[in-house]
Amino acid sequence: MPTAMRFLLLGLFLLPLTAPAALIKEPVEYQDGDTTLRGYLVYDEALPHKRPGILIAHEWWGLNDFVRERAERLADLGYVTFALDMYGDGRVTEHSNEASAWMQQMTANQEAWRHRALLGLEILKRHPMVDAERIAAIGFCFGGGTVMQLAYAGADLDGVVSFHGPLTPAANTKPGDIKASILVAHGEDDSFVPSEQIAVFKAALDAAQADWQMIIYGGARHAFTNPNADSYGIDNVRYDPLAAKRSWALMRVFLDEVFTP
Asked: Which residues of 5-31 are buried (b: 16+ CB within 10 A; e: fewer)?
């Protein structure tokens, strides 16, 4: 066999056995009354079958590039992902005073907070490539609190993951109310969440007989998953690449577990 032909055949054997991801990235408009919400949907069109869906709730900054990148990373893993818009009109800021005001306006009314999150969940569930029986939600900072509210509301979710969330305790939940398994990734040096609140948070989950686990990363501060955290100039907000890597890997294991029959 000629040498050139041998190299050609060798090259064919070395080609990847699966096609590279062909991500579809779609802006999605939906309504909450008079408020237009602008989410971000991502999935791999090369996968022909239905697959689990992941709802993603943003930090208090809004649906920014960090959250979009997380949606794309999860879509690369084979999920359909939908990053919801909790503020409306796709509002994004880098100013903490503005972000704080938007977040407080949203969280002041628990019913409205949960309702808006549930609207995003319905968008994800209705997508034709989503297996509506396998849905999870993840959130960062304010978004961690948002996905916990979904869990507290008894949303039909297999799991929720809170990354450096506020750990607001469940209230008025009874055994069986929380259907989702819960993973909490928290920084030991996150001074935004006092130890007393963590204790109440855990006790409330126990009282509801929830399936939960909490992993605490030594030395990690608030927003430890966000590579842009240091640029905001806020005390106690810092990116921690090791905690970010470990918590993402743990989330992947958790998702595999909750989606396995």
From this structure: eeeeeeeeeeeeeeeeeeeeeeebeee
Q: Please give the C-alpha separations between residue 5 and each of 13, 56, 189, in angstroms, as whole numbers.
A: 13, 49, 61
Is 12 inside any structural domain? Answer: no
pLDDT tens by residue, 8-17: 344 444 434 4
Residue 6 lies in a domain: no
153 domain residue, yes or no: yes
Structural domain contains residue 3: no
pTM as predicted: 0.91
> φ, ψ for residue 2 (rounded to 5)?
-60, 150
Sheet containing 35-44: which strands, arranged edge to edge?
23-32, 35-44, 80-83, 51-57, 130-140, 159-163, 181-187, 212-217
Average pLDDT of every residue of the chain: 93
Distance of CA 27 to the CA centre of its chain: 17
Q: Give the pair of three-digit tokens for residue 147.
A: 């996905």
Which of the four pLDDT bands, split at 50, 70 and 90, describes residue 155? very high
Q: How far apart are CA 61 and CA 57, in angstroms?
A: 11
Compute how many other C-beta atoms are within 10 angstroms of the C-beta atom of residue 173: 19
Going by pLDDT thresholds of 50, 70 and 90, the confidence category of residue 261 is: confident
CATH number of the domain within which 157 lies: 3.40.50.1820
**Confidence at residue 11, expressed as pLDDT on a 0 to 100 scale:** 44
